[in-house]
Amino acid sequence: MKRYFNNRGYTLIIVLLTIVLISLFSLMLIPKALSTSLQVNKSEGMAQAKDLSEMGIHYAHAYFENIVNLAIEQAKADPGFINQTVNHDLLFCENFISLLPIEQTFAEKSINNSAYYYKVSFEKEVNDFFTNCSGFQEIILPIESIGKVDNNSNSEKLIRANFVVENEGEKSIIGPCQGEICPPPPPPENLPFNIINTEINLSGQTVSNYIYTSPKFTQSVVLAGNSRLIVGGNAWVSGSSLRFNGNNAELIVGGNAYFTSPIDFRGNGNKICIRGTAYLYDHIEKKWNVYDVPQFIKSCSGVNEIGYFYDINQWKINEDIDVYY
């Protein structure tokens, strides 16, 4: 009987020791399990915050794209645009700047509930460009988007991006080149031109005519006696040839120039200033070739008097956005 009780006591001790050991191991594992759980929550929270921040970038892109479209429509309604008396790019820039939000943080949106949200802001530098569009060629908008998850993880993610507002028409320019080294030109048929069906005939002392778009001249173009024709975009003389009918006349083209027929030079001291490249159509080969007339086509100071501008409808945000995580 005594031995029986001893065996029962021995068994009880083993059971108690087992319970104690299990309890000790459990206490050791609980913090680790809690830590793992917190890490998982933190990781999920950061992933959610990143997604929210990216949503903010997409929202900002649509927001500023809408401002671009509004600026185009307002500029086209301006009397200076209608009467062709003001540089179109300047009109677009002024309207775009006026439509920008006053506050740097222009959007704060929650998703489903207030614990999940993004906040978007942009930095408008204080300089001559944002004051009066001085030196305007393109607009760079630095954007910041913060995605935040206000739960147990309290996760936050900042993403930066640069939006570049530019004119797609500028990509059609091929800088001055000659002969075989010049790549094929963009066919003028694929470019946006404003059709001018009336004859252009400029003559008289210091007569200048400014065309703030890319014109396609279907009738004759005659420049005489110190006159100047200034084209801001590309130019296409598709009707009869361009004719210089006197001395010291000047043609300035801010983009490329396309001539269906050779230029008719009559007189002395006439100049053609082309920022891009001149092309002459080959009616036999049915293609555009570089028009190489170096004795007349030269760089001249007049081309610097106007900025290059293009079809006002082609302003947009460049789709190749630099994003920094």
From TrEMBL:
The chain crosses the membrane at residues 12-30. Keywords: Membrane, Transmembrane, Transmembrane helix. This is Type 4 fimbrial biogenesis protein PilX N-terminal domain-containing protein. It comes from Anaerobacillus alkalidiazotrophicus.
